[in-house]
């Protein structure tokens, strides 16, 4: 049985991942706002600190995998707090526990939206670890009517952080792969409101074409997360693995 932390475990992709891991006998500790073993608000530094304290108390002798799914899609500055800092600070804080684990692995959730327009300054502030500036830039983007760039920016920064960090000291050289999956449109509570609005659904379908099997289930994405977090994954690191029904191939055409 592996010792696994799953964030966003109360809903959608995180819940599917936690259920699948538990079904095979792993010891899963979920982190979420509510309905989880560790209840914490990952949008803010205090919540992340509290979560790390609780997880360190539980897994001080070693942690085998982290599956970081918590995220929000709302076009608000808070998305930067949850989707970027909530993931990167948690993974950074859990790395020493992973280093004491067996076949340790870490994986998170990017998005097909990294192919969409983003705010370059906001991405740089994230990568610099400057949360106050990142939140201010997100607020300013919203003020200019560019709030739709906040979520893609948070995911863009996250995926770039994964690429940088996977080969930084303490990760690859400690035998810890670090990856992300890039879902297209997934049927979860996050996207329910879009499906409820025919106009929004048409916008989304145009933005994220999925010729292979249409919208994904949360389980389809969770299976990819679980493989990346499994001991079977010995050599994949720093990758954004699209689980998107072909959307990225349609949108980016001939790019290698
Ligand atoms: P969901 O809304 O069903 O689940 C997200 C979970 O994260 C919820 O349980 C929520 O309470 C938790 N969460 C949100 N804010 C939090 C906070 N401040 N602290 C702690 N937990 C918090 O969403 P879904 O669809 O399962 O999304 C999971 C991940 O997949 C997210 O990172 C999302 O950005 C990403 N994603 C989802 C897609 C979709 O179409 N549903 C597409 C691409 C990426």
Automatic annotation (TrEMBL):
Domain of life: Bacteria
Keyword tags: Oxidoreductase
Entry annotated with the keyword Oxidoreductase: yes
Gene3D superfamilies referenced in this protein's UniProt entry, alphabetically: NAD(P)-binding Rossmann-like Domain
InterPro entries linked to this entry: NAD(P)-bd_dom_sf, SDR_fam
Similarity comment: family membership: Belongs to the short-chain dehydrogenases/reductases (SDR) family.
Protein known as: SDR family oxidoreductase
Native source organism of the sequence: Streptomyces thermolineatus
């Amino acid at each position: 049985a592996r010792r696994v932390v799953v964030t966003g475990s109360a809903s959608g992709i995180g819940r599917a991942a936690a259920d699948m891991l538990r079904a095979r006998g792993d010891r899963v500790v979920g982190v979420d706002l509510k309905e989880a073993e560790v209840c914490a608000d990952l949008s803010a530094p205090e919540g992340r600190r509290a979560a790390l304290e609780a997880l360190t108390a539980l897994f001080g002798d070693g942690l085998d995998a982290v599956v970081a799914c918590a995220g929000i899609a709302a076009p608000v500055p808070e998305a930067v707090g949850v989707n970027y800092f909530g993931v990167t600070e948690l993974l950074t804080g859990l790395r020493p526990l992973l280093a004491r684990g067996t076949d340790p692995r870490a994986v998170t959730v990017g998005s097909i939206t990294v192919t969409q327009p983003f705010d370059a300054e906001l991405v740089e502030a994230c990568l610099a670890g400057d949360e106050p500036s990142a939140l201010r830039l997100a607020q300013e983007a919203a003020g200019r009517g560019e709030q739709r760039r906040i979520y893609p920016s948070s995911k863009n920064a996250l995926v770039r952080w994964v690429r940088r960090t996977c080969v930084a000291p303490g990760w690859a050289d400690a035998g810890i792969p670090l990856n992300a999956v890039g879902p297209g449109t997934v049927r979860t509570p996050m996207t329910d409101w879009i499906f409820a609005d025919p106009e929004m659904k048409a916008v989304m379908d145009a933005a994220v074409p999925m010729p292979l099997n249409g919208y994904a289930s949360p389980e389809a994405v969770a299976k990819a997360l679980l493989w990346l977090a499994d001991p079977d994954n010995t050599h994949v690191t720093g990758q954004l693995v699209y689980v998107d029904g072909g959307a990225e191939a349609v949108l980016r055409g001939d790019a290698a």
